[in-house]
């Protein structure tokens, strides 16, 4: 999969220190806030597009794997729905 830009993006996530942009490219993101109970929680949204081969594999296995570098993982959500579209 590769990151794609989108009209609501308002920033970029850069590669971690010490990692070349040739290895990990910048990712267009939207920084915002989302209602979480009584509070508004910070959120960072990115958009990804699978290759045809990946899409075929997802359709076959019905699985998507999330890889996060580091020793832990923040709460994440994978979705096929555009959060900027009206429901």
Largest sheet: 4 strands, antiparallel
Radius of gyration: 15 Å
Low-confidence stretches: none
Coarse structural class: mainly beta
SSE order, one letter for each helix or strand: EEEEH
Shape: globular
> In order across it, which strands form the biggest sheet?
1-4-3-2
- With helices defined by DSSP (H or I, 4 residues minimum), what is the helix count? 1
* DSSP E strands, number: 4
Give the assembly state of these chains. Answer: single chain
Mean pLDDT comes to: 90
> Whole-Å distance between the termini?
26 Å
Give your account of this protein's structure.
The structure is a single chain. This protein has one helix at residues 52-61; strands spanning 2-4, 11-13, 27-36, 39-49. With 87 residues, it is mainly β. It has a domain at 2-61. It contains one helix and four strands; from the N terminus they run E-E-E-E-H.
Q: How do the strands and helices of this protein lay out in sequence?
A:
Blueprint: E1 2-4, E2 11-13, E3 27-36, E4 39-49, H1 52-61
Antiparallel strand pairs: 1-4, 2-3, 3-4
Can you summarize this structure?
By secondary structure, this protein is mainly beta. The protein has one helix spanning 52-61, and strands at residues 2-4, 11-13, 27-36, 39-49. The radius of gyration is 15 Å and the shape is globular.
């Amino acid at each position: 999969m590769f990151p794609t830009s989108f009209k609501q993006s308002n920033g970029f996530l850069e590669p971690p220190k010490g990692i070349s942009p040739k290895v990990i490219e910048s990712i267009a993101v939207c920084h915002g806030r989302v209602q979480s109970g009584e509070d508004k929680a910070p959120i960072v949204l990115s958009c990804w597009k699978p290759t045809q081969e990946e899409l075929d594999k997802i359709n076959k296995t019905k699985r998507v794997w999330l890889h996060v570098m580091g020793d832990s993982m923040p709460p994440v959500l994978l979705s096929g729905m555009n959060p900027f579209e009206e429901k």
